Amino acid sequence: MNKHRRNPLKNRLLPVQWMGTTSAETVPMLRGNFRVYALLVSKRMFWMRNFIFIMILFSAANMLGPAMAQSKALVAGVIQRDLLNLEGMVETRQVKDPQVFRNYPAVREAYAAARAIPSVMDKLFCYCYCEANPRFNHNNLLTCFTNDHASQCDVCISQAMTAKEMTEKGKTPMEIAERFKSFYIDAQRAP
């Protein structure tokens, strides 16, 4: 008796699987006059299960989306308020040298901006949410520029350039934080 069945699509032998376990032999079952053999779960079934899972996930995200956005806004607001109220600098590490990124002008300018206004960037929340993410464990926007994180993050680069531009116009960290809040939080809530 053949211990494997042929897959006509790939012309190779496949082990038989029944209830999630692979066996060396087929598992015959009698149903009426027919012998039913356990077959491998086909690729079509695999993709169907994944499709159903993704649809359930999107449905849940659609229902929970406003609540999740509201909680992100709350986290950003609390952290930003605390940063503005703290005395002195929170981040003590040096900003990475901008010349490391000499082949990437936008990145180099952002790191130069962070180096030029560290006291302002130390008071700003980073809206890529790296402060709220335990994977990064950042303190503020300035922390993003003490390593390579900001070099790969458009949000960090954009915030650094905007903070430098607004500081040059005489704006305070509180005004800059309000600008970021209106851009990253309030604008996304508007219909």
Give an overview in words.
It is built from five helices and six strands. With 191 residues, it is mainly α. It has two domains: 5-40, no CATH class; 66-189, no CATH class. The strands form three sheets. Strands 1-2 form a two-stranded antiparallel sheet. Helix 1 (43-85) packs antiparallel against helix 5 (173-189). The protein is globular and about 45 Å long. The N and C termini lie far apart (66 Å). The relative contact order is 0.09. Mean pLDDT is 75; it is low at 9-44.
Chart the SSEs and their pairings:
Layout: E1 5-7, E2 12-14, E3 16-18, E4 21-23, E5 28-31, E6 34-37, H1 43-85, H2 105-116, H3 118-121, H4 154-168, H5 173-189
Antiparallel strand pairs: 1-2, 3-4, 5-6
Helix pairs in contact: 1-5, 2-4
> Structural class of the helix and strand makeup?
mainly alpha
Q: Name the overall outline.
A: globular
Strand count, sense and closure of the main sheet? 2 strands, antiparallel
**Whole-angstrom Rg:** 28 Å
Mean pLDDT: 75
Q: Order of SSEs, N→C? A: EEEEEEHHHHH
Question: How much β-strand is present in the residues?
Answer: 5-15%
Strand order within the widest sheet? 1-2
Q: Quaternary state, please?
A: single chain
The N- and C-terminal alpha carbons lie at a distance of 66 Å
Keywords:
10% strand, 191 residues, two-stranded antiparallel sheet, 48% helix, 6 strands, mainly alpha, 5 helices
Task: Summarize it.
By secondary structure, the protein is mainly α. The protein has two domains: 5-40, no CATH class; 66-189, no CATH class. Helix content is 48%, strand content 10%.
